[in-house]
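[Q] Does anyone have a clean C-alpha cell version of this?
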Amino acid sequence: MKAFLTVLFAVAVAVAVGAAPAHAEPASTSPLLGRWEVDVAKLPTPPEQRPKSVSITYSDVGGGKWRTHVEVVLPDGKAVQAISTYAPDGTATPVKGNLEADMAATRLPAPGVMVTALALKGVPGSMRTYTVSPDGQTMTETVVYFTSDGTPAMRTNLFHRTR
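[A] Here you go.
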C-alpha cells in the first residue's frame, strides 16, 4: 500500500507541477507574498477540534528563494510552527518544526498559484494548492490527502490577507 501511495502521490505531483514550467514572475511582485490567516470558523472540522488560529507567511528572502512560516495555535492553546526556505522550482527541501512534514517541494505554476507537496519521514503526506483571488485579499488552500485506509480525499480552507 505504501508503494502504491508513493507512486500515486508522485504521479499527482508530476501532473500538477511538472507539466508547467516554474512561473517566471519576480517573487517581489507575487500576490502570494505576505501574511495570511485562516478563517477558523469555516474549517471542515468540529468546532472543538479546530485550531484557535492558523497563519501562513510567505517571504522573498532573496537569491530566488522564498520562506514559508506556518504558525498554528492548537485547540489546547499550544503554539506550533513550521519553517522552510526554498527555491520555488519543485526541488525538495527540509521543513523545520515538523507540523505535518519534514520535506516539501514547491512550485509556482502561474501568477498567484503555488503547489506544495509534503512528506513526513519519507512517506507522502499531502499536496496543497494555494490560489490568490483577483483582488489579492483572499487565498484558497485545496488540500489533497489520503485517509488512513488509502482513500483519496480533499478539503478546502479559506485564508484572508493580514499584510
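[Q] Thanks! Anything notable?
[A] Confidence is low (pLDDT under 50) at residues 1-25.
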